[in-house]
């Protein structure tokens, strides 16, 4: 919005052209979202507390978590508003990827809000039915997938179309999975659906301890922001032997806004947490990360950087599958962070060690840029 407004006066004041810089606007975006979340955090928490929007803790979870009952939840609203405000201020709103990302954020956030609201209303850890939740998350995922495919097919250059659809395999130079060869974009749409939906649910499963999910989200958003910057710039993409993907450089602004909003929220979510993000935050943030990974064609690198989220999701699938098939559990408790709590790790130890692992995975994911 400010970007568009200032450019109306670019002819009369040359200094305004400085706002063409992605780096400058990214710094402004991270500062704005951080300041916004810090400034309004206490008010949002007080409002949630006055509305009695308290967390309902699952009875079959660690007994040490029972003290968290009643802690305000749905704090993810603060994160989403901070991201939306900062993005609208500093991004180029003519970029279609910006609007797709904002739509994904709002759709998944709305599903998470409904889920959180039902949990609060019924004072139970059960919210939306699995069928309804899966349906609406699928609507958001497929909608984003179809929109991205149509944008790719609208590109006049066939090489650009291919770069926006085919799946890049990290490390191996010029190795791709040719999704563009599958008729009607079915391969691309299905993969995009799986990445967005899977990422959304994986982040949601990770959000079980104070600060556990939000800082890895910040780390992964930073890594994806670097990919956005490199793939969106023709010079860097050519130098690093990456496909140039149109529109992605502007996504740096969104990634920066996610970083700022996440850090601001962590101020209140650090142990002992004053507020939880709830499904409204976790589902939408995970979906946004997955969407950005698809937009940059870095789905596999994203799987590495978000390996913590992958491990949490896989632990649940293994636990459920093993119990149904063999009547035995693989872990003491799932998701994975509860398993380590049951082994005697303190909550702060689990969180800090998982943060360290997340940093290492993001660094490894970024190393794939040069290992080609």
What does the model show?
The structure is a single chain. The protein has 372 residues and is an all-alpha fold. The protein has one domain (23-367). It is built from 15 helices and 2 strands. It has helices at residues 2-7, 22-50, 76-90, 96-121, 130-153, 158-163, 186-206, 214-232, 234-239, 251-269, 278-296, 299-305, 307-326, 336-342, 347-367; strands spanning 167-168, 176-177. A hairpin with a 7-residue loop joins strand 1 (167-168) and strand 2 (176-177). Helix 3 runs antiparallel to helix 4 (96-121), helix 3 (76-90) packs antiparallel against helix 10 (251-269) and helix 3 (76-90) packs across helix 11 (278-296).
How would you briefly describe this protein structure?
The chain is mainly alpha-helical and 372 residues long. It contains 15 helices and 2 strands. Strand 1 and strand 2 form a beta hairpin.
Biggest sheet details: 2 strands, antiparallel
Please state how the strands of the largest beta sheet are arranged side by side: 1-2
Low-confidence stretches: none
Rg (C-alpha, Å): 21 Å
Q: Helix fraction?
A: 55-70%
Distance between the termini: 38 Å
- Tally of helical runs: 15
Q: Rough shape? A: globular
The total beta strand count reads: 2
Output the helix-strand order: HHHHHHEEHHHHHHHHH
What is the number of independent domains? Answer: 1
């Amino acid at each position: 919005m400010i970007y568009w407004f200032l450019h109306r006066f670019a002819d009369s004041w040359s200094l305004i052209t400085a706002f063409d810089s992605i780096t400058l606007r990214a710094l402004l975006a991270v500062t704005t979202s951080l300041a916004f979340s810090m400034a309004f955090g206490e008010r949002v928490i007080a409002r949630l507390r006055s509305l009695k929007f308290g967390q309902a803790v699952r009875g079959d979870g660690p007994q040490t978590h029972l003290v968290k009952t009643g802690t305000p939840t749905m704090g993810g609203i603060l994160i989403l508003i901070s991201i939306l405000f900062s993005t609208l201020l500093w991004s180029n709103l003519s970029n279609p990827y910006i609007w797709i990302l904002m739509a994904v954020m709002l759709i998944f956030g709305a599903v998470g809000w409904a889920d959180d609201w039902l949990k609060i209303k019924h004072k139970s850890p059960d919210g939306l039915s699995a069928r309804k939740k899966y349906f609406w998350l699928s609507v958001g995922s497929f909608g984003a997938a179809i929109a991205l495919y149509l944008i790719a097919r609208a590109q006049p250059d066939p090489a650009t179309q291919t770069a926006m659809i085919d799946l890049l395999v990290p490390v191996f130079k010029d190795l791709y999975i040719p999704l563009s060869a599958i008729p009607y974009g079915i391969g691309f749409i299905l993969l995009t659906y799986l990445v967005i939906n899977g990422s959304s649910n994986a982040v949601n499963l990770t959000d079980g301890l104070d600060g556990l999910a939000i800082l890895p989200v910040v780390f992964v958003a930073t890594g994806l922001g670097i990919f956005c910057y490199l793939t969106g710039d023709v010079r860097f993409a050519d130098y690093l032997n990456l496909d140039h993907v149109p529109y992605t450089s502007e996504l740096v602004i969104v990634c920066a806004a996610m970083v700022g909003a996440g850090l601001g929220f962590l101020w209140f979510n650090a142990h002992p947490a004053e507020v939880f993000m709830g499904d409204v935050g976790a589902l939408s943030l995970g979906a946004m990360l997955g969407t950005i990974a698809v937009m940059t064609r870095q789905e596999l690198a994203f799987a590495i950087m978000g390996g913590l989220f992958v491990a949490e999701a896989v632990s649940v699938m293994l636990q459920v599958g093993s119990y149904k098939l063999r009547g035995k559990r693989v872990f003491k408790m799932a998701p994975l962070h509860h398993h380590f709590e049951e082994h005697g790790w303190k909550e702060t130890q689990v969180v800090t060690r998982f943060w360290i692992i997340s940093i290492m995975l993001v660094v490894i994911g970024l190393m794939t840029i040069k290992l080609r």
